[in-house]
From TrEMBL:
Annotated ranges, domain Ribosome maturation factor RimP N-terminal: 16-86
GO cellular component: cytosol
Chain ranges of the Ribosome maturation factor RimP C-terminal domain: 89-154
PANTHER family, sorted: RIBOSOME MATURATION FACTOR RIMP
Organism taxonomic ancestry: Bacteria, Bacillati, Bacillota, Clostridia, Eubacteriales
Protein origin, superkingdom: Bacteria
The gene coding this protein: rimP
Protein's organism: Butyricicoccus pullicaecorum 1.2
Protein name: Ribosome maturation factor RimP
SUPFAM superfamilies: YhbC-like, C-terminal domain, YhbC-like, N-terminal domain
GO BP terms, alphabetized: ribosomal small subunit assembly; translation
Length: 154
């Protein structure tokens, strides 16, 4: 099974489980970390996610992943976790929710001498990220952006 297909199927299974648990499905990833594969289901909730929410989703989806359809997967570890305060923004709805918030943008290669910038998220369009940095509004092209995360201001 291709990774994109796996993620789509896990999202379809997890979505109703998350709704029943009173949380939202933030993201699903299947990645090799070190020598081991990780299937990570990230959840969110206004007011925060606790260990009981993660356990509820994990216990509900684990037997579903034992179905014959998933036999072709390499051995993996299932992880259900909170999106966290410094969450990664990946989907258009993530960006829309946090317009006006401070984000950290990492680049694949240095842009104007920097591999990371921090600023106020002003917009998102087809992968292009608009950030106010040092009083200037800058649009970073999707091909240059490695990741975008919220930052916590203390």
């Amino acid at each position: 099974m291709q990774t994109k297909e796996l993620i789509r199927r896990v999202e379809e299974m997890a979505l109703p489980l998350c709704e029943q648990a009173g949380v939202t499905l933030w993201d699903v990833e299947f990645e090799k970390e070190g020598g081991q594969y990780m299937l990570t289901i990230t959840i969110d909730r206004d007011g925060g996610v606790d260990i009981d929410h993660c356990e509820q989703i994990s216990r509900a989806i684990d037997p579903m992943l034992d179905a014959k359809d998933f036999d072709s997967l390499p051995p993996y570890t299932l992880c259900v976790s909170s999106a966290g305060l410094e969450r990664r923004l990946k989907k258009p709805e993530h960006f829309a929710k946090y317009i006006g918030e401070t984000v950290e943008v990492k680049f694949y290669r240095a842009i104007d001498g920097a591999k990371i910038v921090e600023g106020k998220l002003m917009g998102y369009d087809n992968g292009n990220v608009t950030v106010e940095v040092g009083g200037q509004t800058v649009v970073y092209e999707a091909a240059d952006v490695a990741s975008v995360r919220l930052t916590v201001q203390f």
